[in-house]
Amino acid sequence: MATIQVSVITPDGAVYEGDAELVVVKTVEGELGIKAKHIPLVSPLAVGPARFIKEGKEEQVAVSSGFVEVRPDHVSILAEAAERPEQIDTERARKAKERAEQRLASEHVDRKRAEAALQRAITRMDVAKHKGA
Question: What segment(s) does the record annotate as region Disordered?
Fold first, then answer.
């Protein structure tokens, strides 16, 4: 199967470079699957995992919003923050999840910020499960 080049870039530099048969990202409109020769597009990303599948194996990167730019031969994910599974501190993510849940239980809270923090923590914990995969 044909592959497409993939780059995940943050303000701190490249987090992932490789090629994949299928790239799946979470956009603000829902999940988007991308294969080689996809039509060009740019879409805002939601917090979620970016998945890269090649030869039946899947790699993931936790993405904290940004944009995806698709060209027929390359996918660029420009993220505010992104982490590979081995970079994620699962204990820190678990504590962030607990704090976000506590804030959401409070009456006087910026719900949008607390929900975003909760989603980031859940995404990081889910992606961390792919360490060594």
Answer: 81-110
Taking the C-alpha atoms of residue 32 and residue 35, their distance in angstroms, rounded to an integer, is: 10
Is 133's pLDDT higher than 70?
no
Structure token pair of residue 46 = 């939601």
Q: How far apart are CA 85 and CA 133, in angstroms?
A: 9
| Each residue's pLDDT tens digit, 63-104 | 998 999 999 999 999 999 999 999 888 889 899 889 888 888
CATH number of 89-128: 1.20.5.440
